[in-house]
Amino acid sequence: MPPIIPDILFNAGFCLISAFITCGIGFFVYALKPSSNVHRLFLAVMVLATYWATGEFFIWQASSLEGVEFWLRFSSFWPLTIAIGSHFILEFTGELQGINKKRNTIIIVCIYLTALLISVIGLFTGCLYTAAFSPEIGYYYLPVHENPFCLVGISYTAFIMLWAFLVGFISWRYTEPGIKHTQNSLLFAGIIITIFFGMLSGIVLPIFRIYIPNLVFIGFVFLSILIVYAMRHYGLFVLSPETAVPEIMKTMPDGLILVDSGGNIVAANESAENIFPSLKSSPAGISAESLVSPGNYGAIKDLITKKGEISDFEIGLPGKTTRYISVSGSVVRDRDGNPSGAVLIVRDITERKASENALRVANDKLSLLSQLTRHDISNLITALSGYLFLLDDKLKDPEEKLYLGKSIEITDRVMKQIEFSRSYHDIGLEKPMWKDLGEQISGAAESLVRGDVQIRLKIDPVLIYADPLVEKVFYSLIENAIRHGKKITEIVISTEEQEDGSLILRIKDDGIGISDEEKEKIFSYGYGRNTGFGLAFSRELLSVTGIEISENGVFGEGASFEIHIPKGVWKRRPGSADQG
Fold first, then answer.
1. Are residues 537 and 420 in contact, defined by beta-carbon separation less than 8 angstroms?
2. Which of 251, 280, 279, 248 is CA-nearest to residue 264?
3. pTM for the full model?
4. Which CATH number applies to 433-572?
């Protein structure tokens, strides 16, 4: 007769308690990263453990042999908990990564098929466990040791538990000191406790004919507590290669490095190891600043801390030949939104830098050649113009003077185009700067011969962020209005702040205007009755800082050029009163 275990197990109440704990932990971890295979497996383990614990609880609440047998069959899929648990441990520790895909599949299939076979036998037969009754204990169950299927089930359970122990031990033993090692230690401790309680009630106690509710669920409770502790203090399931870095990191052409809040590397992909050979032995635990120098890493960390991300931070790596890398990245946050590390994307840009240097040298040579060519042509055109003017004094024939006048006009246009090419060459050479809008427009207007055309300014005291040559834009727009407006008498230049924070600069005249079919063509190079470059030049120069220009006047009533200055590209002049 089995010995009496009075009230110590609180009528199997710990089974129900563990069911709630494991289920809650499982869904909490899954919610952290549903796309992670490790998280999905952990959820499956916890859900099956909950199912198993619930069945165990009702077995010990049964009031008849039939009730015990019913709940035994209900709980017959408990081996799947062990199978998925072993799969989770293999996936978490990365043991499957060192096995080829075919062999990997065979191992997993064998684990699940054996577990499924044992479950089916338990569901449809009484070969594994049988119901019993004792006046001292009540209704309980015990293994059918005489049946070979029962021995297979016990052997399978013992084998899987031993295997899980060895895998956990190897992963713990050979992981470099650091957060990952601590995570493995806590998980390994939980595995040992769970295996201990499982073997105690599943193998050891039955040998002495002691039958009590399965103590493995006490092990699950301890495992859950250790997992919560590891998550809270060591980033388990929050900052680890399996959860924080997607699977695609393994095949990324760029290096991907996961750094914890202390600046130590948690994981790195193969591309990162190719860039930094020191990572090939074992990246975990290596200080990130040792790869790029403390100064560079400090700058990267400060930018990520302030902005939450960094993009294209270039670093030169010393060596026999200098290599260049570009670093981008962003902060990694835990479930509560607190920073827990950073993801760094590293790209080798040595070839790109070499190409940029070659392109810069070529551009400098072309620029020098262009300047010399313009200078020589200008000198020749100036000399030609001088001879043409001398010739003009000597010619008396009206027809000859007409042809000579045309020649002088052509040389003037050539000179203007050379001047334009000089101005166009200067676009973007100097960094944009803040310019007083009123001063730029006034300067352009004063340098023009306006005749009887009046220019009225209704401009707010603002600064615009534009290319240093922006005054040429206003010169070109006013000069075009005077030249082509025909009946023009007035040009009104005004500003108007928009609801979205942008600013509209409007240059409007009362001339003949521009026809609808020409409103866009006038911004094309070569289009127009003069050089055909002024408005095209204006649009391109303004676009350097994102400023846009368009013509919205009514043909016959006058031209109206609207310059759209985005928010952030203009601001009130210091000391001026706020408007709008």
1. yes
2. 279
3. 0.44
4. 3.30.565.10
